[in-house]
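thought: user wants a sequence for this fold. calling inverse folding tool.
action: design(structure=
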C-alpha cells in the first residue's frame, strides 16, 4: 500500500522544503544539534520524494512530464543541490563549533561558499545539461579579471583565512596591533574590529594585521604587566634610585611574587636618567589602580631616600625629624613650635630584613614612624599568618597604646631594611594632653585600621561546607522527630 506521504511526491517535496525553512528560522539557536538532526531527516525525506516522483538529481528531468510538471521538477532538482549544500554547511558548523566556539564566522562562510559553488556547478551540469568545461573556462577568465580588480580585497580575505587558521587572537581577546590596543569584537572577511578603552571603534584590515606585530594581552592569561617610566635628575645616584624603586615594588601588595618585578635604567642623558619599573598583576582590570598606587609609593620611597632628603635639607633649612613628621598625615597640623618639641623625643632605630618590629597582642610602649623601607602587616589565623597589608615611609605603628592602651591587632615585620623613628609613651603622653587634636587623629587611624582588618579577614573566611549524604539526611530526619509528651 502506497504511503499517503508520497501519494503526491512533488507536492510532498515542496512541503518538506517549507517545513525546513520554517523550523530553521523559528527554533531557538541553542538547540543547534536538534535542528541539524531534523534537517538531515527532512533532507532524506525530500530526496525520497524526488526519487518516488521519478526524478534523479544526477540526471536531467524526463521528457514525458507536462510543461508545468517539468518546470516544477527542474526547480526541485536544483533545490536538492542547494538544500544539500546548506545541510553540509550546517553540519560543518556543528562539527566545528567546539573548536571555534561559535565566534569564527569567516571559516564557516568560506566553507558555505565552497559547498554552494559545487552545488551550482553540479546543478548546471546534471540538471540543466550545460557544458561545464566552457562555463568553468569562462568563469576562470572572469575570476582573473576580478582578481586583478580587487587585489587588495583578496589580500584581506586570504589574510583573514590565515588569521582564522593560526588563531593569534580570537573574539573577546584584548590585543595590541601597531600600537593600537583594544578588544576584538568581530573578525569578518576583510577586517578585524577593535573596541578601544575610549569607547571608539578601530577597523584594521586583515592584511595589515597579518603583516604587523600582534601582542595578545589576554593570553596566556596568568598575569599582566604594569610598566611605568620614571625620569629623574642625573645627579641622583642610580644604585640608590633603583633601591628605592625596588622598595616601592615590594610595598605594593597586589603585585605578584612570581614573576618578580624589577626596575632598570632604560635611557641616560646629560640632564636626566630614565628608569623603567615593571610589575605583574593577576587581573588586567587592576592595572590602572596598581599603576597609580605604584606612582605614589615611588614618590614616597624617593622622598625618603638619602639623596633627595639631603637635597631638601639644603634647599629648605629643616631637620630630618621634621621632614618625617611632615610625611605623617595625622601630624601635619602641628605648628613649628609643637613640631620642634616633638622632635626632641624622636629616636631613630634600624631594623634588618625579617625583624619583627612590633608583635601582635602586645601593648605598644612607643609610637613608631617609618622613615624608609617596607613593612609587612600580618595577623595570626588557625592556618598560619595571613598578610593583610604593607606599610611604607610616613606611616605610623603603635597608636593603640596611646589611645586606650589596647594590644596591637597585627604583627609588623621589616620586609626590607627599615629606618623607624620611635617616640616613647612616657615622653609622648604629656605632650598629647596639650594637643588633644592629635590624640583624636590617632584614634581615627586606629578605628580605620580595625575596620580594614575585619574586612580583610572576612574575605579569608572559609565558606560553610554543605553536608550531604545518607548519614546527614538520617540525622536531619531524626532531629525533626519530636519527643513524646
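)
observation: tool returned 485 residues.
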Amino acid at each position: 500500500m502506497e504511503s499517503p506521504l508520497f501519494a503526491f511526491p512533488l507536492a510532498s517535496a515542496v512541503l518538506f522544503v517549507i517545513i525546513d525553512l520554517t523550523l530553521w528560522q523559528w527554533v531557538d539557536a541553542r538547540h543547534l544539534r536538534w535542528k541539524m538532526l531534523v534537517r538531515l531527516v527532512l533532507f532524506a525525506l525530500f530526496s525520497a520524494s524526488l526519487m518516488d516522483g521519478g526524478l534523479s538529481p544526477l540526471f536531467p528531468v524526463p521528457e514525458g512530464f507536462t510543461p508545468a510538471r517539468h518546470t516544477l521538477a527542474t526547480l526541485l532538482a536544483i533545490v536538492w543541490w542547494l538544500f544539500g549544500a546548506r545541510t553540509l554547511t550546517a553540519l560543518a558548523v556543528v562539527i566545528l563549533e567546539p573548536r571555534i566556539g561559535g565566534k569564527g564566522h569567516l571559516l564557516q562562510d568560506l566553507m558555505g561558499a565552497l559547498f554552494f559553488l559545487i552545488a551550482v556547478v553540479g546543478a548546471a551540469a546534471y540538471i540543466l545539461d550545460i557544458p561545464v568545461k566552457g562555463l568553468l573556462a569562462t568563469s576562470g577568465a572572469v575570476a582573473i579579471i576580478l582578481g586583478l580588480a580587487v587585489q587588495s580585497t583578496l589580500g584581506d580575505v586570504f589574510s583573514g583565512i590565515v588569521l582564522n587558521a593560526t588563531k593569534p587572537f580570537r573574539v573577546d581577546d584584548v590585543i595590541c596591533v601597531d600600537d593600537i590596543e583594544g578588544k576584538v569584537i568581530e573578525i569578518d572577511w576583510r577586517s578585524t574590529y577593535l573596541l578601544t578603552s575610549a569607547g571608539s571603534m578601530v577597523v584594521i584590515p586583515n592584511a595589515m594585521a597579518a603583516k604587523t606585530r600582534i601582542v595578545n594581552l589576554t593570553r596566556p592569561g596568568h598575569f599582566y604587566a604594569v610598566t611605568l617610566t620614571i625620569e629623574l635628575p642625573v645627579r641622583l645616584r642610580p644604585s640608590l634610585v633603583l633601591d628605592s624603586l625596588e622598595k616601592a615594588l615590594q610595598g605594593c601588595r597586589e603585585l605578584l611574587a612570581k614573576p618578580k618585578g624589577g626596575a632598570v635604567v632604560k635611557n641616560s642623558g646629560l640632564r636626566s636618567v630614565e628608569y623603567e619599573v615593571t610589575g605583574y598583576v593577576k587581573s588586567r582590570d587592576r592595572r590602572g589602580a596598581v599603576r597609580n598606587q605604584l606612582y605614589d609609593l615611588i614618590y614616597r620611597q624617593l622622598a625618603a631616600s638619602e639623596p633627595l632628603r639631603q637635597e631638601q635639607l639644603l634647599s629648605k633649612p629643616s631637620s630630618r625629624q621634621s621632614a618625617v613628621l611632615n610625611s605623617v598625615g595625622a601630624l601635619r597640623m602641628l605648628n613649628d613650635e609643637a613640631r620642634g618639641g616633638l622632635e626632641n623625643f624622636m629616636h631613630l632605630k634600624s631594623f634588618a630584613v625579617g625583624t619583627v618590629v612590633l608583635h601582635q597582642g602586645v601593648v605598644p610602649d612607643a609610637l613608631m614612624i617609618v622613615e624608609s623601607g617596607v613593612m609587612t602587616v600580618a595577623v595570626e589565623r588557625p592556618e598560619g599568618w595571613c598578610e593583610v597589608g604593607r606599610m611604607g615611609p610616613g606611616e605610623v605603628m603603635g597608636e593603640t597604646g596611646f589611645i586606650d592602651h589596647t594590644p596591637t591587632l597585627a604583627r609588623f615585620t621589616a620586609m626590607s631594611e627599615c629606618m623607624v623613628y620611635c617616640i616613647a609613651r612616657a615622653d609622648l603622653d604629656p605632650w598629647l594632653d596639650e594637643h588633644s587634636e592629635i590624640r583624636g587623629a590617632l584614634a581615627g587611624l586606629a578605628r580605620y585600621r580595625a575596620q580594614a582588618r575585619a574586612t580583610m579577614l572576612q574575605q579569608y573566611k572559609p565558606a560553610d561546607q554543605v553536608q550531604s549524604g545518607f548519614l546527614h539526611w538520617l540525622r536531619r530526619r531524626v532531629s525533626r522527630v519530636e519527643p513524646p509528651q
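thought: summarizing for user.
answer: Here is the designed sequence. The CA atoms of residues 370 and 420 lie 5 Å apart.
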